[in-house]
Design the sequence.
């Protein structure tokens, strides 16, 4: 895998298909796996890919980088990148997708297969200019997303309210979850607007709820379930669970899976005159 | 929150249909709940989820949104975009424990004063039935 990756990247530089490549390397001193940007064929030998490559590198692609930029992509990263291209963050030609056959990455805290990978149904990147590794060996999910939200589905409103209040209680509004998310791409985040100030910056139950609600709403139909938000949270808050809940509904209502189809728009930018009124609760009114 | 258990309701009405419909209900002297506070918006498509969340945070017990009937939107499709957004807002609020009774989305045209009167009264009763329950979005902290 590593050798194939290095050879391909070297070839991309030699044929001038890329100006730089975003990948992973093992830090020579600390041994940690970290993201790296390489700018020439000579540097390709430090690249690696294995189950410790947790980062979503699609977050690191910037429109003003000297392109085309090669990006090492797992399935989830590729879907995020696809969504960013659809949203006109940068043109498709700006990136060269180096899709790697992903067998899942570990949860850095426990070293077990991470939760997102247990339910991942699309382990190959939809953006794949070159493919590394054996696509047929990526394996299947062992869980469904529904299994993760069933616990909340079973609760009554009061239990749900208590559950989320406790979940969000340690939140310090540091917004690391926002910084890590490849799809938190607003020029100015709503949390940074203070006239009027919609989201209070001081942590307390009501402002925690405001932040996490609007975060989940802005990710409805856009979240690719890459799990970066939870990994980034210094408080270990499982805030991504709310994204999963709403993703269940978005898929049910709009029949839309994020980032899989090239150029598929965010569902809120579209409408269908036949969208049923029953979505709003109550009878058809016409 | 008041001790009288009389709920506070915020209604977002689009200026072209529902607000005019509310006006008609008023000028025709039809009964409308006195605890409904109307906020006029240019179009139901103008509704940002933050409006609804904020209303709950600031102590509303129920929120209602009403626009033109599909096909009658002054801006042609604003209410159709709104439908998708409102559907997701509703589901999201249910996930975090807002009782579905606290929300009401509807279409009311400028000529439907009677329907406005009837729907708002019904909604007020519905909200009254849950107004005593704690609202997970409401500010519980003491403001300085
Ligand atoms: S979510 Fe899927 S594509 Fe992403 S790291 Fe896990 S198994 Fe790989
Ligand atoms: S919300 Fe979390 S899981 Fe979803 S795309 Fe953003 S970082 Fe990834
Ligand atoms: S990273 Fe964690 S603590 Fe920081 S804002 Fe997000 S949920 Fe809150």
Sequence:
């Amino acid at each position: 895998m590593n050798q194939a990756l290095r050879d391909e990247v070297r070839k991309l530089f030699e044929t001038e298909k890329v100006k730089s490549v975003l990948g992973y390397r093992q830090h020579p001193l600390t041994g940690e796996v970290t993201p790296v940007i390489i700018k020439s064929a000579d540097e390709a030998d430090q690249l690696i890919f294995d189950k410790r490559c947790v980062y979503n590198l699609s977050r690191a692609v910037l429109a003003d980088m000297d392109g085309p930029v090669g990006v090492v992509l797992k399935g989830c990263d590729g879907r995020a990148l696809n969504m960013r291209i659809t949203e006109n963050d940068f043109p498709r030609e700006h990136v060269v997708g180096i899709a790697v056959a992903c067998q899942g990455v570990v949860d850095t805290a426990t070293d077990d297969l991470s939760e997102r990978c247990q339910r991942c149904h699309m382990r190959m990147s939809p953006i794949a200019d070159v493919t590394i590794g054996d696509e047929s060996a990526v394996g299947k999910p062992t869980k469904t997303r529904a299994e993760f939200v069933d616990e909340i589905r079973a609760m009554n409103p009061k239990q749900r309210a208590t559950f989320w209040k406790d979940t969000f209680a340690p939140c310090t509004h540091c917004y690391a979850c926002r910084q890590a998310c490849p799809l938190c791409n607003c020029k100015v985040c709503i949390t940074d607007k203070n006239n009027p100030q919609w989201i209070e910056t001081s942590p307390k139950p009501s402002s925690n709820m405001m932040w996490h609600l609007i975060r989940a709403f802005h990710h409805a139909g856009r979240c690719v379930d890459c799990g970066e938000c939870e990994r980034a949270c210094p408080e270990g808050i499982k805030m991504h669970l709310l994204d999963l809940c709403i993703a269940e509904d978005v898929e049910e209502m709009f029949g839309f899976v994020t980032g899989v189809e090239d150029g598929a728009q965010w569902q809120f930018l579209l409408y269908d005159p036949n969208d049923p009124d029953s979505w709003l609760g109550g009878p058809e009114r016409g | 929150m008041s001790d009288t258990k009389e709920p506070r309701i915020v209604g977002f009405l689009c200026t072209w249909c529902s607000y005019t419909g509310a006006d008609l209900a008023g000028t025709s002297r039809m009964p409308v709940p006195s605890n409904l506070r109307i906020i006029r918006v240019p179009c139901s498509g103008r509704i940002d989820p933050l409006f609804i969340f904020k209303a709950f945070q600031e102590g509303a017990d129920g929120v209602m949104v009403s626009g033109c009937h599909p096909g009658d939107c002054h801006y042609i499709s604003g209410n159709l975009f709104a439908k998708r957004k409102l559907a997701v807002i509703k589901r999201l609020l249910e996930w975090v424990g807002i009782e579905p009774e606290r929300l009401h989305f509807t279409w009311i045209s400028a000529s439907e004063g009677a329907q406005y009167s009837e729907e708002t009264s019904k909604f007020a009763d519905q909200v009254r039935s849950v107004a005593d329950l704690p609202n997970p979005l409401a500010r519980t902290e003491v403001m300085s």
About this structure: Chain B touches chain A at residues 49-50, 53-54, 57, 69-71, 77, 80-81, 83-100, 103-107, 133-134, 136-141 (CB under 8 Å). Chain B has one domain: 25-130. Residues 25-130 of chain B form one domain.
